[in-house]
Amino acid sequence: MTKWGHRPHWQFEGVLLGSDEHGDWLGFAAGSTMSRPGASYVAPVDQVCLVPAAGDDALRGWVATFHAAHGPLHTYVDMTTPPTWHVVDGGVEVHAVDLDLDVIRGTTGRVWVDDEDEFAQHRIEHAYPEDVCALAIATAERIHAAVTDRVAPFDGSAHAWFDERRSGAVDRT
């Protein structure tokens, strides 16, 4: 992930678990280190991440992370530019620009949009283009409704990918 203006943000390594109708699934083991300038985070539980399937970019401006049981939250969805895959040094990377807004489902089931203040500040401070702002806002509204209503892949079905994470990468395409 980067922030607008090619500013560095979170970087971490994972394993490609496979793909389904929702997109590509990546796995991160408990203990994985995620870092960004000025901060690092060690994942307390296994996590799986969904990069949405190719298609209409207006529907792909997000990346979702699901936490295993007993994690600090259930679902964390970053609003982003549409993610893209890149071949780098013999491996592959997913790139997206984090647009501040996040949809979160906590461990109690409560769902909320986070960092609206940060988005409001950054859209001015970093001169987000109006079409990028409109995409982030519309995506946050759509994802909030999907997470609240437990629409797939936000219906708990993502947890099947934790078994894939434990057993190794499998391509379901």
From TrEMBL:
Gene3D superfamilies: FomD-like. It comes from the Bacteria. Residues 37-148 form the DUF402 domain. This is DUF402 domain-containing protein.
